[in-house]
């Protein structure tokens, strides 16, 4: 018997989460039982979808839900060997026991950092890939707008669109991120929505309109994009981060969907199991060739997980937010 730390939600946030909403708790942990494995956490994934869960779905006084990468340190399950690297959805636990459900053995490419399996080659990567190519039905050479284009999902979606020969506009919240989008990710245009008038800047950046909008924000971003959409444009709705902390930005022109014959459709990463094999092959090749670039913000130490989640919503991350356990 040992102990392992967990991150618990101890009260529901009233708007933006604050440190007092969370607690680091020592929990007892037995050795792995028959049919079980024990996993030592290595990397935790911090993602926007976690915020809406704090309002109701996440139980108080339990380890917060989330994904990560770990190493099997005990195994009494024939499907797993001690020392194997695994990807899991067991949440914010420093170490945990599992019967193996929801845990997958990873065989990481030795030429790539392990952390990319938490973003470009993980859930955020398949979200961008499937959302853009299947839900957004992207065609080569189209006009594309991606909101929060410097984030973990948006940056991948924007660069895939460039690989497909598209004209790509991205929005972001700082001049540093805007510079990265133009100089490193190779976008055709970028907008700092905090310092520029989003609606007029997008209009100027999209002289040929927008065929596909990869939506991560909602509110004013959706309002601005709708005003620029081309006939039979597609809006692939990945997230609505502007509403997650209780804010409500009105969208005034949804009626343009009607006469523009547009399609707006939401999706989640688990919609695309049939794309996984091709995604893994494509993304591995793009990463190794440098055609997909990425940024990571890595906080060192398990106890910094609440800080990482709060920082995500304050825009303190560049690219994917991670915690190294």
Automatic annotation (TrEMBL):
In its UniProt record, a GO molecular function of this protein is: oxidoreductase activity, acting on the CH-CH group of donors, NAD or NADP as acceptor
Cite the Gene3D superfamilies for this sequence.
Medium-chain alcohol dehydrogenases, catalytic domain, NAD(P)-binding Rossmann-like Domain
**Short name of any one Pfam family annotated for the protein:** ADH_zinc_N
Top-rank taxon of the source lineage equals Bacteria
Which InterPro entries does this chain map to?
ADH-like_C, ADH_N_2, ER, GroES-like_sf, MDR_fam, NAD(P)-bd_dom_sf
**SMART domains from the xrefs?**
PKS_ER
Sequence ranges assigned to domain Enoyl reductase (ER) in this UniProt record = 17-323
Q: What are the protein's UniProt keywords? A: Oxidoreductase
**Has keyword Acetylation?**
no
Q: Does the keyword Oxidoreductase apply?
A: yes
Xref: PANTHER family: PROSTAGLANDIN REDUCTASE, PROSTAGLANDIN REDUCTASE 1
The name under which this protein is listed is: NADP-dependent oxidoreductase
């Amino acid at each position: 018997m040992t102990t392992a730390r967990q991150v618990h939600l101890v009260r529901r946030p009233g708007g933006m989460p604050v440190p007092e909403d969370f607690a680091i708790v020592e929990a007892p942990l037995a050795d792995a039982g028959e049919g079980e494995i024990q996993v030592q956490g290595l990397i935790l994934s911090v993602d926007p979808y976690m915020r809406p869960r704090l309002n109701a779905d996440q139980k108080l006084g339990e380890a917060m839900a989330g994904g990560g990468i770990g190493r099997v340190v005990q195994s009494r399950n024939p499907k797993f060997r001690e020392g194997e690297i695994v990807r899991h959805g067991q949440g914010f636990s420093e170490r945990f026991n599992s019967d193996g459900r929801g845990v997958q053995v990873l065989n990481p490419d030795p030429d790539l950092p392990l952390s990319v399996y938490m973003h470009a080659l993980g859930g955020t990567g398949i979200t961008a890939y499937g959302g853009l190519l299947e839900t957004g039905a992207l065609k080569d050479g189209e006009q594309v707008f991606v909101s929060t284009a410097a984030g973990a999902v948006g940056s991948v979606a924007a660069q895939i669109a460039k690989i497909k020969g598209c004209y790509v506009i991205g929005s972001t919240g700082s001049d540093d991120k805007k510079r990265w989008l133009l100089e490193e990710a190779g976008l055709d245009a970028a907008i700092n929505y905090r310092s520029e008038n989003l609606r007029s800047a997008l209009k100027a950046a999209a002289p040929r309109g927008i065929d596909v909008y990869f939506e991560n924000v909602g509110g004013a971003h959706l309002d601005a994009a709708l005003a620029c959409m081309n006939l039979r444009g597609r809006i692939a709705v990945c997230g609505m981060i502007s509403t997650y902390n209780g804010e409500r930005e009105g969208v005034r022109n949804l009626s343009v969907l009607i006469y523009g014959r547009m399609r707006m459709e939401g999706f989640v990463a688990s919609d695309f199991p049939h794309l996984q094999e091709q995604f893994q092959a494509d993304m591995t090749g793009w990463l190794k060739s440098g055609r997909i670039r990425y940024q990571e913000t890595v906080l060192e130490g398990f106890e910094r997980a609440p800080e990482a989640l709060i920082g995500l919503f304050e825009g303190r991350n560049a690219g994917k937010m991670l915690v190294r356990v």
